[in-house]
Write a structure and sequence with these properties.
Elements lengths: L1 H8 L3 H30 L5 H103 L5 H28 L2 H6 L1 H16 L2 E6 L6 H22 L3 E9 L2 E8 L14 H12 L3 E6 L5 E8 L17
Parallel strand pairs: 1-2
Antiparallel strand pairs: 2-3, 3-5, 4-5
Length: about 325
Amino acid sequence: MKLMAVLRRRPLVLPLAAVAAVGMLAISESAYWLALATLDNLGASASTTERVAGRQSLYQILGLGRSGVAVLSVACLLAQHDVQRQQALRDERDRLEREVADQVAQLTELAQHLQTAREDERGRLARNLHDELGALLTSAKLDAARIRSRLAGQAPEALERLVHLVGTLDSSIALGRRIVEDLHPSTLGNLGLVAALDILVREFATQAGVRAHLALAPVDLSRAAELVVYRCVQEALTNLGKHAQASQVWVSLHTQGGWVQASVRDDGVGFDTLARPPSAYGLLGMRYRVQAEGGTLLAQSAPGLGTLLLIRLPAGAAVCGPRPTPEAPAP
């Protein structure tokens, strides 16, 4: 392992070792034949038996040297091939990682574009409902009020029907306002994120019959990031009302360490975060929206221990005061 680490840090070691091995092999061969020639010259006066024995001994010694150099050369060549193969695998892995990173970046941009297009379409639909449908319902209500004033004291049955009609129109206008607010929260643009979250959470608590604890402080975010926080809290409350069976919910918003943190916590039944339920696309959509704004989303839960959703987005200029104290302790 140490050898491979050295080779990765110094890729020229193997080529130099191979050249050295070839040089050693050439020198060994030269020394071998030179030794044989010297032995022949020096052994001319020696007996035949001595010359044969010396030659055989020299053959053995030089043969071992040649074999060692040859084995070293082959080992160097094989090691060089293995390092080249490992380098090719690393290059291929790096290429695949770059492709995956590019694909993730493209998917994130696509998700952000789709979310932006969706919000734009919801805003257009909300304006149409508010301007056109609201005007029609208000006009109908005014006409019904005029008719009722002219029929005062006459046709009690018709007056009763008009009263019912006016009540129906009032309910329709209120429904239209709720639909418009769900499509595009006007409070977010008019009153800011803190007021919009306060209204959202309190209305949810009234409808769902849960107790809400709010700890909201002003934060510095762009309009797009404020909308991301609002939508994530809205989605978390929707999931809470459908699945959590909770009696209390804690919602906080503050700045800490250069990050805007928004959290939604409940004391409901919780869920297993390792098991992906069929309806996990809401959480996945929230995560992509937060990541598109350069933030992170963390979901912590366990069966019977409630759920915590934590949103972290990079903050701009610090405009926040000290972190508020929650109204009630966490479960």
